[in-house]
Amino acid sequence: MASNTAQTEFRRHLRKKNAGKQAKRTRANRGTTPSFPVHTPEADQNAPAQVAQD
Known about the structure:
Helix content is 57%, strand content 0%.
């Protein structure tokens, strides 16, 4: 049987290792920048006219 100190240190190690694991996984999958509209009517109106290049 492990000593009380060994058990405590092991538990601290586990807590530190697992801290934020779910948050890190979520950030990796979803990213940190919220989605926002890129092509809004205002943006299209303010954009310079595009010239077709052949």
